[in-house]
Write a structure and sequence with these properties.
The structure is a single chain. This protein is α/β, with parallel strands linked by helices. It is about 35% helix and about 25% strand. An eleven-stranded mixed beta sheet has the order 6-3-7-8-9-10-11-15-14-13-12. Strands 2-1-5-4 form a four-stranded mixed beta sheet. The chain has a three-stranded mixed beta sheet with strand order 16-17-18. β9 and β10 form a beta hairpin.
Length: about 500
């Protein structure tokens, strides 16, 4: 065992013990974070406008600070972008992470001196928890690849702007620099297809032990590796590849395809990072869900998803949540976001410690007929329908067909198959059965002949990649929504 591996195990035990300390006292930990946020931001423009100096309790905060999305906070963000200080947080942020997804186009999320370390430490700690639990530390001697956006940043008014993954690339610890791939020059390539091909050339003969990225784009990397190697399995190309780290989307729909491409099962670690904060990571290979990070300068509130669009829905704090309920995630952070709706929905899988899964997006659902189908349900249905079969899925999305040419409306599943089912109707029936078991409203609509059963439409090879390319969203942190309440994506794919 190398000195590096021994040191990693010692450090992993230390981090595990620190995590155990705060995760064993969740309510007190969140209270301390809350107090710190109020104290540090009371002299900011936002703090003064919302009377932070009078806030003593969570209830006071909720009365003074309404739930906001990016558009509601935009007037403050614009002031910060223009170089004004002490607006949302003390001083000026170090960075603005540029992301997409609002009606006005790009979003700019601040990252401060206080918030930036939490992004870096969380990713590191996820790996350390894995080492502590499994004892596997040999991979630290191999090469590690992180498929991410360009680290090239621009500066305005003393603040640097870039993609979150590109910003984080500037904080890779020195002890990982020699192991890290691709090269800095390759990472700076903006065109995703050119970048992936260059990464393949740089890595194909290296001792890759850890690969990290959004599954859909890692899949593209694997496909290019196989093309260049004459069809070899990834496990043959990288004999010591044993750990896959991912975030952004649920891995389960990709798992069968990945195992086929790799040629063996590899351990995986799920992360829940976002520009707004690094919220959770998988702390155990034995437990379902990711550990919610309660000590990272983020105060969490939760709104039940089925109440979110009602007037004045109740905002729950960490001590009030329940298992299995779909919650919209609301955060206030040491980057200056306040009562901020990040758009994701989560469910708790454990309350001791608090672990979560990402169940979807609060605005990504199908409820054309009141069924309110969420991403977690369609992903579970796909997992159940493919279990024990040879069917392999590359990608899929779901949309309502409200005005079909013939017959009743339906949910259309647009699927890119790697290996198709022998009988497409039987496969559709299996998906539909799973959906009906999970969602009583959907079942009622089928039973009442309001909807007909699932209809599957095949998407041509690389159809999803071509769609993303046509939208200018190929690669990086971009991903296909698992489902939509309209047909914008579905009609483009068809």
């Amino acid at each position: 065992m190398s000195i590096k591996s021994i040191a990693a195990k010692i450090f992993a035990r230390k981090i595990y013990n620190q995590t155990l300390s705060w995760s064993s006292n969740p309510v007190e930990t969140q209270l301390e974070v809350f107090k710190s946020l109020m104290q540090n931001a009371k002299e900011t423009q936002f703090g003064k406008n919302h009377h932070f100096d009078t806030i003593k309790t969570f209830e006071d905060f909720q009365k003074n600070v309404p739930v906001r999305d990016y558009e509601d906070l935009k007037e403050y963000i614009e002031k910060v972008k223009n170089g004004e200080e002490n607006i949302l947080w003390k001083g000026k942020p170090l960075y603005f992470a540029k992301t997409s997804g609002t009606t006005s186009g790009a979003k700019y999320i601040p990252l401060t001196k206080e918030s930036m370390p939490t992004h870096v430490n969380a990713a590191r700690n996820a790996i350390l928890h894995y080492i502590n639990e499994t004892g596997n530390a040999g991979f630290v001697n191999g090469k590690m690849i992180f498929l991410q956006g360009s680290p090239i940043l621009i500066e305005k008014h003393g603040i640097k702007f870039g993609r979150l993954s590109g910003i984080v690339a500037h904080f890779v610890p020195k002890y990982l620099q020699k192991n890290r791939m691709p090269s800095w020059e390759t990472n700076c390539i903006d065109d995703w297809e050119t970048k992936v091909n260059t990464i393949v050339g740089e890595t194909i003969n290296e001792n890759m032990s850890v690969i990290s990225g959004i599954p859909s784009w890692v899949q593209m990397y694997f496909e290019r590796l196989q093309e260049k190697s004459g069809g070899k399995k990834i496990g043959e190309i990288f004999k010591n590849f044993n750990l896959f780290i991912y975030g952004g989307v649920n891995y389960e729909p990709y798992r069968a395809k990945f195992e086929q491409m790799i040629g063996k099962k590899v351990d995986s670690i799920e992360l829940f990072p976002a520009s707004e904060g690094f919220f959770a990571y998988q702390d155990s290979q034995k437990e379902r869900g990711m550990l919610l990070l309660l000590n990272s300068g983020i105060f969490y509130e939760f709104i039940k998803a089925d109440e979110f669009f009602t007037e004045n829905p109740k905002r729950y704090t960490i001590g009030e949540v329940e298992l299995g309920v779909n919650y919209a995630l609301i955060v206030s952070t040491n980057a200056g976001l306040w009562g901020y709706n990040i758009g994701d929905t989560i469910q708790f899988t454990s309350l001791a410690p608090y672990r979560v899964i990402v169940s979807g997006r609060i605005k990504h659902y199908i409820s054309a007929f009141g069924e309110h189908v969420i991403a977690n349900e369609v992903e579970n249905a796909m997992k159940e329908a493919t279990a024990g079969t040879n069917i392999v899925i590359n990608e899929f999305t779901v949309a309502p067909q409200i005005t079909p040419a013939n017959g009743l409306p339906y949910h259309e599943w647009l699927i890119e198959f790697e290996k198709e089912p022998e009988n497409i109707e039987t496969f559709a029936e299996a998906i539909d059965d799973s959906m009906r078991k999970q969602n009583i409203y959907y079942d009622d609509l089928i039973t009442g002949n309001v909807l007909r059963k699932v209809v599957i439409s095949k998407v041509s090879k690389n159809g999803f990649q071509e769609y993303m390319k046509s939208q200018g969203k190929l690669g990086g942190q971009n991903k296909i929504p698992r489902l939509s309440n309209n047909r914008d994506i579905a009609d483009n794919l068809k």
